[in-house]
Amino acid sequence: MARSIATRRQQAKGTGPNGPTPSYRSIEREPENERKETMVTQKKRSVKAKPRPALKKTAAAARRGRPPGSTSLTKAIEDKIVSYLSTGGTYDGAADAAGINPRTLREWRERGESRHATRPCTPKLRRFAKRVRQARGEVRVVAEHRVWENNPRAWLERTARATPDDEGWADAPVRAGQPAALAPEIGALSDEELNEALARMLEVVDEHLEGFRPTRRRGTRKEES
After folding, report:
1. Which of 94, 113, 95 has the alpha carbon at shortest distance from 103?
2. Residue partners of 167: CB distance under 8 A and separation at least 6
């Protein structure tokens, strides 16, 4: 009896033969604390595992790559264009025959020669532009050989221009803004002779235009009245 009463007192004080014993209140609160800790841990894990929203593409990233709907330069298209140009075809004709827009071909050439205003050059386009120039050069050499063989005068007029030291076969072409060279006969005249020749030319022109000027009839209204 005394032992059971001592045991009850020890339990009420929270002590026992083997050390302090947890009270009924702590026993009831432990599961609740564990549940809270479990919920906090799960919440932290869910926050860590939550995927980050995808970043919006900037304007520079959107411009990268080939524009949608544009034609890509393939080996088959490149071979077709070079083949058509090698047989004397024009740029527009070769583009149409290859199934692409002529503007696309011009853009490829400009980019391959680093002449495009906005888009850069690539090794593939550089190789393509080189093949195009070579094909056009081969066609031109063949055509010039035919002109030289069949019409040598026309070939000389285009290739052997006149120079101050050589008469040549044709006058040198005059560029925009560049004064034309005077004939040797006119260059040998003095200023007085040039003025006299110019005055005579104006007289001849005036006499020639005199017959085309309308004549006014005077007194026509008085006679009719």
Report:
1. 95
2. none
Checking if the pLDDT of 144 tops 80, the result is: yes
pTM of this prediction? Answer: 0.48
Least Cα distance to 95 among 128, 46, 49 occurs for 128
What end-to-end distance do the CA atoms of the chain give, in Å?
Answer: 169
pLDDT for res 107: 95
Please give the average per-residue pLDDT across 132-143, as a whole number: 94
Please tell me the distance from the alpha carbon of residue 14 to that of residue 25, in angstroms, as a whole number.
Answer: 11
Between 135-149, 191-205, 208-222, the lowest mean confidence (pLDDT) is in 208-222
Cα(72)–Cα(56) distance, integer angstroms: 27
Amino acid at 1: M
Res. 75: pLDDT tops 80: yes
Of 109, 136, 138, nearest in space to 124 by CA: 109
Where are the chain's structural domains? 2-43, 74-152
pLDDT of residue 169: 79
Note whether 100 and 71 are within 8 A (CB): yes
For the beta carbon of residue 128, count every other beta carbon within 10 angstroms: 22
Q: Please count the CA atoms within 13 angstroms of the CA of 59 that sit on its side-chain side.
A: 0
If DSSP codes are grouped into helix, strand and coil, which group holds residue 161?
strand
Q: What is the pLDDT of residue 225?
A: 45
88-122 burial by CB neighbour count: b if 16+ within 10 A, else e?
A: ebebeebbeebebeeebbebbbbbbeeebeeeeee
Contact 155, 148 (CB under 8 A): yes
